[in-house]
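User: Some background: our group keeps a shared notebook of sequences we're curious about, and every so often someone picks one and asks for a predicted structure to add to the entry. Today it's my turn. The entry only has the sequence so far, pasted here. Could you supply the structure so I can complete it?
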Amino acid sequence: MNAVQRFIRSRVLLLTAAILIAAMCLSVIVQSQSQAALSRTVDENSRGLYDVLVQAKAPSGAMLQPEIANGTGGITFEQLEAIRKLSGTSVAAPISLVSRVTQNLEAPRLDAMDYLGYNAGLAGTATADQAAGATAPAQWPAAESVLSDQAKKYRLTASAVSSDGVSEQTLFKSTAEGTLGKAKLVEEQAAGGSSIRIAAPSGETGIKFPAPAGGSEHNLFNLSVSLPLAPEVTESVVAVDPAAERALLGSAGDFLAPLEKAPPADARNAGAVGRYLEGLFTNGIGLDQLKEGPDFLGVKLKYWAPLMTQYQQAKRTGQLTAESQAIPLVVRSGTSLDLKYNVKIEEIDDTGKVVKDVGTVSRSLGQDYLPFVSKDPFVLSWPGSTDHTSLLGATGNFNQGLYTPAQWSTDFAAAPKYTDGKTASNGAVDKAAVPGEWVTVNRLPEKSANGAPVDQTQREPVDERSYRENLETGGKKVAAPLAMVYGTFDPSAVSKAAGDVNRLPLGGYDPTPFSLVKDPEGKDVSAAELKPSLSATGLASQSAGAITDYYGLAAARGYTQNASVIDAVRVRADAPGSWKEAQPEVEKLAAEIRSMGLEATIVAGSAREDASIFVPGYSKDDAGKESALGTVQQSWVRQNAAEAVTGSLSGTNVTLLFLTLCGAALLTGASTVSYIRKRRSEAGTLRAMGWTQRRIRSWVLEEFGVGAVLLAVAGVVLSLVSWSVATALVSVSVLVLYAAAAFFAAQQLRHRDVIDQEPQHDERLIPVDSPLTFANRQLGTNKFNTLSLAVAVGVFGAAVGGLIALLIDIPRAAGASALSGLAAASVALPSILLALSGVVVGLVLTLVTGRFELNAKRQYLGILEAMGWNPDMLRQVRLFENALVGTVALPLGVLGALGIGLLLAPYAALWAGVAGLVAVLCWIPIATKVVQ
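Assistant: Of course. Here's the predicted structure to add to the notebook entry:
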């Protein structure tokens, strides 16, 4: 017979080679699918809204903090234009931090429903035009009130509470008492007829809080009590180029369209704009304009009424000058500032004793709040009240809102500073915030709106820790600007447009919250989102309160010519495709920008990553002792995350493939060596026929050569199909191991005559009186096969341990970014399948090795059965044989698994050892059950 026929006849060589080839095909297919899933996941999530971040001075390190609009400037408009003229530039969108703006939340009040019903003299002509939404007189409901006809005495306790998301702080608590009752309509005779007025009930004193709060008054719908002034709120303003920003954001940037219609710099005089708004009343304004806002150079000024009153107030107080400019703004809708205003209402008797607890009403700044123009941010309703002001229709929507102009500062808070700590095994770097000075908030203004002095003793100022350096802009003393609100934007919608895994910081108007995850002692706590501070200088910040253009920045800072005021330029390269496809063009563009003397950070291929930040010196007690907050997390940007994740997980994939197939090849070799010992009788026959030892070895090696050819063909085909160098290298390694096993097996064919030298009366012989003793005696008699099987089982355990260690190590190897988690999830199932295939193939090959002595085992088990051993004792013999083999294999399996784990996945080496131990222990009952 030729070598091929002998190879097929041997069955064992054919079976082991077939198992190995099947393992190669399955493993390469699974590994290829895993690699494809990894590449697809990385490509789909590694290119954000822009590719290059340009700054005058870029921070060091692989982590990019989200606050890129930090007030440092350094980029001129000439440099911006030069960037835009580069052939590789698609979009270049600048952004700058403009200023801090402090706003008084005007006129908190408590409205108690005291609706007097329809009266033509009081409702006037507001109900005449039904198209304006006014309710017809006949459809007005009957009068109703939450107050009694007879005036009663009440105590009102007003308080404001702020929260940083972790703890609450009472900013003030103020109490006022007085009598309130239901108003009535009084008709009085006057020259030319009669008049109707609203009169308070007899004995009503009203309620008056300390200045600057007013008193209480009745109107057609309510009794309004003026409440203590709410704390000041500080916002930030950023500047963008509206057209470039819209190009960067796509349809998500449509909220900036009104800014593109803003007038040029020489047409923004605050006085001219204010006089235009005042002229709307002088010349008459239609109800449609009152509802939608008058047209101002193509933009509907929906919030013109509070702007007009702010202009009038600023003009009266002398804030506005001839140089004051109107700044067009798109303001944030809502706020994440946690500020709650409470009013507790109690009915009391003349001695001050509480007769009835009417209730406590509260209101927080929320989604209804609009910086600069918010309408009645703190109007609270008496329990049981109903708002009837909508009966007047559109005219009822006119309201002064925030009538005190905002205070613009030429100084502003920069981004927080951090120091680096230890680096975790997955590459994450711990950081610590650098605390700054203490900032005092909750102050009252020196004077009220009418110029009267304000009692400063009614509330205590509050200190907040600042984590932001106060920066001087370098501009001259600026004339107070006038805010002109063109529209609103939703920061959550902008954040959504920026993406998730590949989210890059836009710069100031996309919120990046902090979440507290550990207390100062390092213990885990329930995640709580930090809220921004009143001063806007704390660690947590919210989206900018407003967005303006660069003419607005010049007006706010006092620049009259181009200056280095651009904090960052976000550049999108004119290169389609994934991050890998666009990488050459992006790198070329970045190099051209660096040649201008600017820092260009390539962010294509970056991903979001949560940074752990320890926050010291966050609060202090009454004695001035400072305390840390704990550890917070914030989403930063990991540069080159795509390349790192791809390289790491690709390496893990290849290692899994290598370990699976090379482990299978070693087990195949162990099986082959054990099997070839059975062919010694054939070698003896051939030797007797005159064959030399060399010829006998060549004769056997020819059979192995057939298996090697099959393995080589399979390796070539798989390498071509997968088109992978890794597959080719692994196939070569498998072939080398198979060939080495063949040569080693051929060395075992030296024939020796077996002579029965068992002594008949040797006192050293151990009597066979139990299954354990027989199993031990039997294995000792066949030491070579026992050791071959033990080595095979040990290799199996080591391979299993290595595979498990690699699987456990995948999340760490992938890294800490959001892309890492996504990529690791995409390869998890293929990696598990690959590892399972390796485990199954290894187990099958060890079982095949265990069957080589099956006929001999069945013979002696039959003899034992004839001697009277029962089935339980026979099962125990098989169990003890496998247990003894497992005992020998256990050190090899555990130590081998530990060694592979330390080499390939050091952080999971202990788990590798445990997995190797479990694999060997599990092999014992499986082999006992299967090999019978």
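Suggested note for the entry: The radius of gyration is 42 Å. Confidence is low (pLDDT under 50) at residues 125-131, 753-761.
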